Input
Amino acid sequence: MRLGVLADTHDRVPAVREFLRRFQDAGVELVVHAGDFCSPFAIDPFVSAHIPMVGVFGRNDGDTEGLRAAASAGMGIEMFESPHSFTMSDHAILVVHDITDVQQRSVTSHAFVFHGSAHQQEMKTRKDSLILNPGEACGWVHGSPTAAVVDMDSKHVEFIKLDGPEWKF
Output
């Protein structure tokens, strides 16, 4: 199974739409969002794309009820407080906005840990856990939107960067 991983979209709807298109082209079956959607309208691309998504709230998600209401308009779109743990294809997955908000034992008890907040792409392992920050899908801080596709069986990660002139800041 392939997952699309996003974080820190910060209302940049055109970038989210492009990532969702690329995720669908790559055979992604579920998108995991590690927080900071910001406004409820930032959920619209997920609803329009008809792609399931599990997301957690980040520090800049002030209208959590509005985000939940927007998510309820789509099929298979779920929003949770951070951190959130679930199982998919026999793999334990932890989604957290800020990795410093969880204990090390929580990290190593999951096969996959997806986080955001730092706006920096990062991939590392702790024991058998793959820990991934896909970077910032908005591109506001570092100039180009980034995301990742993860193959759950092989633990292979493909980073995606929107680097055309229309995405630069």
About this structure: The longest helix spans residues 13-25.
